[in-house]
Predict the structure.
Amino acid sequence: MKTVAIVVFPGVQALDVSGPLDVFAESNRFLLPAQHYRLELIGLTRGAVPCSNGMMITPQRHFSEVADTPDLLLVAGGPALPAQCESDEALAWLRAACGRAPRYGSICNGIFPLARAGLLQDDIVTTHWNDAQALAARYPALRLEADRLYVQHGRLHTSAGVTAGIDLSLYLLAQDHGPEVALNVAKRLVVFTQRAGGQSQFSPFLTPFVEETSAVAQVQQYVLGHLSRDLGLAELAAVARMSRRNFSRVFRRDAGVTPAEFVESARVDAARARLERDGSPLKTVAYECGFRDARHLREVFTRRLGVSPSHYRASFGF
Protein backbone atom coordinates (compact mmCIF):
# COMPACT_ATOMS: atom_id res chain seq x y z
CA MET A 1 0.00 0.00 0.00
CA LYS A 2 1.49 3.35 -1.06
CA THR A 3 1.13 6.43 1.10
CA VAL A 4 0.37 9.90 -0.22
CA ALA A 5 0.88 12.81 2.17
CA ILE A 6 0.03 16.46 1.56
CA VAL A 7 1.59 19.19 3.66
CA VAL A 8 -0.88 21.88 4.78
CA PHE A 9 -0.66 25.16 6.71
CA PRO A 10 -2.91 28.10 7.65
CA GLY A 11 -4.12 29.80 4.48
CA VAL A 12 -3.72 26.72 2.28
CA GLN A 13 -5.77 26.61 -0.94
CA ALA A 14 -8.50 24.04 -0.31
CA LEU A 15 -8.58 22.74 -3.89
CA ASP A 16 -4.80 22.19 -3.81
CA VAL A 17 -5.55 19.66 -1.07
CA SER A 18 -8.88 18.12 -2.04
CA GLY A 19 -8.16 17.77 -5.77
CA PRO A 20 -5.13 15.46 -5.50
CA LEU A 21 -6.63 13.62 -2.52
CA ASP A 22 -9.77 12.83 -4.52
CA VAL A 23 -7.73 11.47 -7.43
CA PHE A 24 -5.97 8.92 -5.24
CA ALA A 25 -9.05 8.21 -3.13
CA GLU A 26 -11.17 7.49 -6.22
CA SER A 27 -8.46 5.28 -7.66
CA ASN A 28 -8.93 2.90 -4.71
CA ARG A 29 -12.29 1.95 -6.27
CA PHE A 30 -10.43 0.39 -9.20
CA LEU A 31 -7.50 -1.19 -7.39
CA LEU A 32 -6.98 -4.33 -5.37
CA PRO A 33 -6.85 -3.72 -1.59
CA ALA A 34 -3.10 -4.30 -1.53
CA GLN A 35 -2.69 -1.56 -4.16
CA HIS A 36 -4.75 1.06 -2.33
CA TYR A 37 -3.34 4.45 -1.48
CA ARG A 38 -3.31 5.56 2.14
CA LEU A 39 -3.89 9.30 2.33
CA GLU A 40 -2.78 11.72 5.00
CA LEU A 41 -2.56 15.43 5.72
CA ILE A 42 0.50 16.66 7.60
CA GLY A 43 0.22 20.01 9.33
CA LEU A 44 3.00 22.54 9.70
CA THR A 45 1.01 23.90 12.67
CA ARG A 46 -0.93 22.04 15.35
CA GLY A 47 -4.69 21.63 15.31
CA ALA A 48 -7.25 22.49 12.66
CA VAL A 49 -6.00 24.51 9.68
CA PRO A 50 -8.05 27.36 8.16
CA CYS A 51 -8.03 27.34 4.36
CA SER A 52 -7.91 30.52 2.29
CA ASN A 53 -11.64 30.13 1.55
CA GLY A 54 -12.54 29.83 5.24
CA MET A 55 -12.98 26.07 5.30
CA MET A 56 -11.30 24.21 8.17
CA ILE A 57 -9.35 20.98 7.70
CA THR A 58 -7.72 18.83 10.37
CA PRO A 59 -4.39 17.15 9.59
CA GLN A 60 -3.91 13.64 10.92
CA ARG A 61 -0.46 14.51 12.27
CA HIS A 62 1.81 17.44 13.03
CA PHE A 63 5.10 17.26 11.15
CA SER A 64 7.00 16.65 14.40
CA GLU A 65 5.08 13.39 14.82
CA VAL A 66 6.07 12.05 11.39
CA ALA A 67 9.11 9.80 11.40
CA ASP A 68 8.04 7.48 8.58
CA THR A 69 8.47 8.32 4.90
CA PRO A 70 5.51 8.62 2.52
CA ASP A 71 5.84 7.29 -1.01
CA LEU A 72 4.65 10.64 -2.34
CA LEU A 73 4.99 13.89 -0.39
CA LEU A 74 3.40 17.01 -1.85
CA VAL A 75 3.33 20.54 -0.46
CA ALA A 76 0.06 22.36 -1.20
CA GLY A 77 -0.07 26.03 -2.15
CA GLY A 78 -1.86 29.08 -0.85
CA PRO A 79 -2.40 32.71 -1.91
CA ALA A 80 -0.07 34.15 0.74
CA LEU A 81 2.51 31.34 0.69
CA PRO A 82 5.31 33.08 -1.27
CA ALA A 83 5.64 35.70 1.50
CA GLN A 84 5.25 33.33 4.44
CA CYS A 85 8.07 31.91 6.55
CA GLU A 86 8.06 28.39 7.92
CA SER A 87 9.83 27.57 11.17
CA ASP A 88 13.38 26.26 11.03
CA GLU A 89 12.11 22.98 12.50
CA ALA A 90 9.45 22.62 9.79
CA LEU A 91 11.95 23.31 7.01
CA ALA A 92 14.43 20.84 8.48
CA TRP A 93 11.73 18.16 8.62
CA LEU A 94 10.62 18.93 5.05
CA ARG A 95 14.20 18.75 3.81
CA ALA A 96 14.76 15.37 5.47
CA ALA A 97 11.38 13.91 4.48
CA CYS A 98 11.71 14.90 0.81
CA GLY A 99 15.26 13.61 0.82
CA ARG A 100 13.94 10.15 1.71
CA ALA A 101 10.68 10.09 -0.27
CA PRO A 102 10.65 8.18 -3.59
CA ARG A 103 8.63 11.08 -5.04
CA TYR A 104 8.04 14.58 -3.74
CA GLY A 105 6.92 17.92 -5.06
CA SER A 106 4.47 20.76 -4.95
CA ILE A 107 1.02 21.85 -6.00
CA CYS A 108 0.66 25.43 -7.25
CA ASN A 109 3.02 27.73 -5.31
CA GLY A 110 3.81 25.03 -2.74
CA ILE A 111 7.18 25.07 -4.46
CA PHE A 112 8.23 28.03 -2.29
CA PRO A 113 8.63 26.01 0.95
CA LEU A 114 10.61 23.43 -1.03
CA ALA A 115 12.93 26.19 -2.21
CA ARG A 116 13.19 27.71 1.28
CA ALA A 117 14.12 24.26 2.60
CA GLY A 118 17.04 24.16 0.18
CA LEU A 119 15.61 21.26 -1.82
CA LEU A 120 15.83 22.95 -5.21
CA GLN A 121 19.04 23.75 -7.05
CA ASP A 122 19.05 23.82 -10.86
CA ASP A 123 15.87 21.75 -11.14
CA ILE A 124 13.32 22.07 -13.94
CA VAL A 125 10.07 23.26 -12.34
CA THR A 126 6.76 25.03 -12.85
CA THR A 127 4.35 26.93 -10.60
CA HIS A 128 1.27 29.15 -10.74
CA TRP A 129 1.68 31.75 -13.47
CA ASN A 130 1.05 34.57 -10.99
CA ASP A 131 4.03 33.52 -8.87
CA ALA A 132 6.43 32.53 -11.65
CA GLN A 133 8.22 35.88 -11.84
CA ALA A 134 8.77 36.01 -8.07
CA LEU A 135 10.08 32.45 -8.04
CA ALA A 136 12.50 33.16 -10.88
CA ALA A 137 13.75 36.32 -9.19
CA ARG A 138 14.38 34.67 -5.82
CA TYR A 139 15.82 31.43 -7.17
CA PRO A 140 17.54 32.24 -10.48
CA ALA A 141 19.28 28.86 -10.67
CA LEU A 142 15.94 27.12 -11.22
CA ARG A 143 14.97 26.29 -14.79
CA LEU A 144 11.41 27.56 -14.65
CA GLU A 145 9.00 26.40 -17.35
CA ALA A 146 6.14 28.71 -16.49
CA ASP A 147 3.98 27.58 -19.41
CA ARG A 148 3.66 23.97 -18.23
CA LEU A 149 0.85 22.36 -16.24
CA TYR A 150 3.20 19.97 -14.52
CA VAL A 151 6.86 18.97 -14.74
CA GLN A 152 8.75 15.89 -13.61
CA HIS A 153 12.46 16.23 -12.95
CA GLY A 154 13.75 13.05 -11.39
CA ARG A 155 11.97 12.49 -8.08
CA LEU A 156 10.71 16.08 -8.08
CA HIS A 157 7.21 16.80 -9.43
CA THR A 158 5.83 20.34 -9.61
CA SER A 159 2.50 21.60 -10.92
CA ALA A 160 0.96 24.87 -11.95
CA GLY A 161 -2.00 26.64 -10.39
CA VAL A 162 -4.72 24.96 -8.33
CA THR A 163 -6.51 22.47 -10.63
CA ALA A 164 -3.20 21.48 -12.22
CA GLY A 165 -2.67 19.45 -9.04
CA ILE A 166 -5.37 17.12 -10.35
CA ASP A 167 -3.52 16.76 -13.66
CA LEU A 168 -0.27 15.98 -11.86
CA SER A 169 -2.02 13.42 -9.66
CA LEU A 170 -3.59 11.69 -12.68
CA TYR A 171 -0.14 11.60 -14.29
CA LEU A 172 1.38 9.99 -11.18
CA LEU A 173 -1.53 7.56 -10.93
CA ALA A 174 -0.99 6.49 -14.55
CA GLN A 175 2.68 5.91 -13.77
CA ASP A 176 1.70 3.61 -10.90
CA HIS A 177 -1.24 1.71 -12.39
CA GLY A 178 -1.53 2.55 -16.07
CA PRO A 179 -3.63 4.93 -18.17
CA GLU A 180 -6.87 2.93 -17.85
CA VAL A 181 -7.07 3.51 -14.11
CA ALA A 182 -6.32 7.20 -14.61
CA LEU A 183 -9.04 7.36 -17.30
CA ASN A 184 -11.59 5.78 -14.98
CA VAL A 185 -10.73 8.20 -12.19
CA ALA A 186 -10.94 11.18 -14.56
CA LYS A 187 -14.41 10.02 -15.64
CA ARG A 188 -15.49 9.66 -12.01
CA LEU A 189 -14.31 13.19 -11.26
CA VAL A 190 -15.70 14.54 -14.57
CA VAL A 191 -12.40 16.18 -15.49
CA PHE A 192 -10.34 16.23 -18.66
CA THR A 193 -8.46 12.95 -18.95
CA GLN A 194 -4.85 13.71 -18.13
CA ARG A 195 -4.31 17.05 -19.78
CA ALA A 196 -0.86 16.98 -21.30
CA GLY A 197 1.76 18.59 -19.12
CA GLY A 198 2.53 21.00 -21.92
CA GLN A 199 -0.91 22.56 -22.13
CA SER A 200 -0.52 26.23 -21.37
CA GLN A 201 -1.81 27.20 -17.93
CA PHE A 202 -1.81 30.84 -19.00
CA SER A 203 -0.68 33.01 -21.88
CA PRO A 204 2.17 34.92 -20.24
CA PHE A 205 3.40 36.57 -23.43
CA LEU A 206 0.12 38.38 -23.94
CA THR A 207 0.75 40.26 -20.68
CA PRO A 208 3.54 42.84 -20.36
CA PHE A 209 6.36 41.79 -18.06
CA VAL A 210 7.61 45.30 -17.41
CA GLU A 211 6.54 48.93 -17.18
CA GLU A 212 4.39 49.65 -20.23
CA THR A 213 6.30 52.77 -21.25
CA SER A 214 9.76 51.16 -21.08
CA ALA A 215 11.79 50.32 -24.16
CA VAL A 216 11.63 46.61 -23.30
CA ALA A 217 7.83 46.67 -23.15
CA GLN A 218 7.73 48.43 -26.53
CA VAL A 219 9.90 45.69 -27.99
CA GLN A 220 7.67 43.01 -26.47
CA GLN A 221 4.61 44.59 -28.04
CA TYR A 222 6.47 44.90 -31.35
CA VAL A 223 7.31 41.19 -31.22
CA LEU A 224 3.69 40.24 -30.56
CA GLY A 225 2.54 42.33 -33.51
CA HIS A 226 5.20 41.15 -35.98
CA LEU A 227 5.73 37.44 -35.27
CA SER A 228 6.19 36.57 -38.95
CA ARG A 229 9.21 38.90 -39.29
CA ASP A 230 12.82 37.82 -38.74
CA LEU A 231 12.97 39.46 -35.25
CA GLY A 232 16.70 39.09 -34.89
CA LEU A 233 18.73 40.96 -32.30
CA ALA A 234 19.61 43.80 -34.69
CA GLU A 235 15.96 44.52 -35.54
CA LEU A 236 14.82 44.43 -31.92
CA ALA A 237 17.70 46.61 -30.75
CA ALA A 238 16.75 49.13 -33.43
CA VAL A 239 13.16 49.19 -32.15
CA ALA A 240 14.52 49.90 -28.66
CA ARG A 241 17.01 52.46 -30.07
CA MET A 242 19.89 50.77 -28.29
CA SER A 243 23.08 49.05 -29.28
CA ARG A 244 22.71 45.30 -29.59
CA ARG A 245 24.94 44.65 -26.58
CA ASN A 246 23.16 47.13 -24.32
CA PHE A 247 19.74 45.96 -25.51
CA SER A 248 20.53 42.32 -24.70
CA ARG A 249 21.66 43.27 -21.21
CA VAL A 250 18.66 45.53 -20.47
CA PHE A 251 16.11 43.12 -21.93
CA ARG A 252 17.37 40.17 -19.89
CA ARG A 253 17.49 42.28 -16.73
CA ASP A 254 13.96 43.63 -17.11
CA ALA A 255 12.16 40.71 -18.76
CA GLY A 256 13.97 37.84 -17.07
CA VAL A 257 14.68 36.08 -20.38
CA THR A 258 16.85 36.76 -23.41
CA PRO A 259 15.30 38.44 -26.47
CA ALA A 260 15.57 35.17 -28.42
CA GLU A 261 13.83 33.23 -25.63
CA PHE A 262 11.02 35.77 -25.52
CA VAL A 263 10.54 35.66 -29.29
CA GLU A 264 10.47 31.86 -29.35
CA SER A 265 8.05 31.66 -26.43
CA ALA A 266 5.78 34.31 -27.96
CA ARG A 267 5.69 32.35 -31.22
CA VAL A 268 4.89 29.09 -29.42
CA ASP A 269 2.15 30.82 -27.45
CA ALA A 270 0.67 32.29 -30.62
CA ALA A 271 0.78 28.88 -32.30
CA ARG A 272 -0.85 27.29 -29.27
CA ALA A 273 -3.69 29.83 -29.45
CA ARG A 274 -4.15 29.18 -33.19
CA LEU A 275 -4.25 25.43 -32.66
CA GLU A 276 -6.95 25.86 -30.02
CA ARG A 277 -9.25 28.05 -32.08
CA ASP A 278 -9.07 27.03 -35.77
CA GLY A 279 -8.19 24.20 -38.13
CA SER A 280 -5.63 25.93 -40.33
CA PRO A 281 -2.95 23.65 -41.81
CA LEU A 282 0.16 23.37 -39.70
CA LYS A 283 2.29 25.02 -42.38
CA THR A 284 -0.02 28.06 -42.29
CA VAL A 285 0.22 28.29 -38.50
CA ALA A 286 3.99 27.97 -38.76
CA TYR A 287 4.32 30.75 -41.34
CA GLU A 288 2.00 33.19 -39.57
CA CYS A 289 3.70 32.63 -36.20
CA GLY A 290 7.22 33.10 -37.56
CA PHE A 291 8.57 29.54 -37.79
CA ARG A 292 10.62 28.49 -40.80
CA ASP A 293 8.22 25.70 -41.69
CA ALA A 294 5.91 23.09 -40.13
CA ARG A 295 8.86 20.92 -39.13
CA HIS A 296 10.48 23.79 -37.25
CA LEU A 297 7.18 24.49 -35.49
CA ARG A 298 6.89 20.84 -34.44
CA GLU A 299 10.45 20.78 -33.10
CA VAL A 300 10.14 23.95 -31.03
CA PHE A 301 6.57 23.31 -29.88
CA THR A 302 7.41 19.80 -28.68
CA ARG A 303 10.61 20.91 -26.97
CA ARG A 304 8.94 23.73 -25.06
CA LEU A 305 5.57 22.17 -24.22
CA GLY A 306 6.32 18.46 -24.20
CA VAL A 307 3.58 17.63 -26.70
CA SER A 308 3.39 17.82 -30.51
CA PRO A 309 1.19 20.45 -32.22
CA SER A 310 -1.08 17.77 -33.68
CA HIS A 311 -1.54 16.07 -30.29
CA TYR A 312 -2.18 19.44 -28.68
CA ARG A 313 -4.82 20.33 -31.26
CA ALA A 314 -6.49 16.92 -30.91
CA SER A 315 -6.69 17.37 -27.14
CA PHE A 316 -7.63 21.03 -26.79
CA GLY A 317 -8.32 22.52 -30.15
CA PHE A 318 -10.64 23.09 -33.04
